[in-house]
Design brief:
Elements: H1 2-19, H2 24-31, H3 36-50, H4 55-78, H5 82-98, H6 116-138
Helix pairs in contact: 1-2, 1-3, 1-4, 2-3, 4-5
């Protein structure tokens, strides 16, 4: 248990240093690694332990940055420094938004389009449907040619009805 706690602490510190813009070499020096490869692996393990890759990793880094900022302004905010209180509230709001802690805002949009062109197109479409239905019922059937049923096993269908 103690070993895991020490590893977690090192990972958290490595993330803080990475969030502060430190290079892997600088992180290695501060955490006692021989070279930057150990620091790079530590940061990667820390990111993997806290979130999924890519956008989630960036979210973790930004969260760590916000935590560091909060720690920096918190003492003065607790002493009543008005500007520090404002900053703490802004940091808290950003942290909540970053991690989805706030209820989503609900927006209702009611769009009504009263465009004369749309009304004309609808009227023309209705008239076209009416004309097609009327013509389909009243038009005489002419020029009907009876075709033989195609053989489903034959891949060559007659193209000329008289050829069959």
């Amino acid at each position: 248990m103690g070993r895991q706690l020490a590893e977690d602490t090192r990972q958290a510190r490595a993330l803080e240093l990475a969030a502060a813009g430190k290079t892997y070499s600088e992180i290695a020096a501060e955490l006692g690694y021989a070279d930057k490869s150990g620091a790079r692996k530590l940061v990667q393990r820390a990111l993997a332990a806290r979130a999924d890759p890519s956008a989630a990793q960036l979210r973790v880094i930004q969260g760590v940055q916000l935590e560091m900022l909060m720690r920096a302004v918190w003492p003065k905010a607790m002493q009543g420094d008005t500007e520090s209180v404002r900053e703490a509230v802004r940091i808290s709001e950003r942290y909540s938004k970053l991690h989805g802690l706030d209820a989503p805002a609900v927006h209702k949009v009611d769009v009504q389009q009263h465009d004369e062109r749309v009304a004309r197109i609808k009227a023309m479409a209705a008239q076209l449907v009416e004309d097609l239905e009327r013509d389909a019922v009243t038009s005489p059937v002419t020029n009907v040619t009876e075709l033989p049923a195609p053989d489903p096993y034959d891949d060559k269908y007659p193209s000329d009805p008289d050829a069959a």
